[in-house]
Amino acid sequence: WPRVGIQINLLKGKEGEVVGLKDATVKPGLFKPGEWNHFLIRAQGRSLKLTFNGKEAWSTEDENPREGYVGIQAEGVRFQFRNLKLTPLKSE
To answer: Which of 5, 23, 24, 36 is most buried by its number of CB atoms within 10 A?
Structure first.
């Protein structure tokens, strides 16, 4: 398991919360229980942004930009994922 990284939660009640970044607090009411929810995560250079169901959840700067893997994990409950896309971006 990576020792350094950023984790965006899917845990019930903490959807979109971030582990590993400061100033990335999710605005309430963006998650739609029982429906498909859309996350758009943009990491470009030091800039990170989460758009959740078409609305900005948070935007911040990463003090330690990093490269590595993208992992998808769901613990203890059934999750379904669809239309996963990764698009490489040029550094700003």
So the answer is: 24
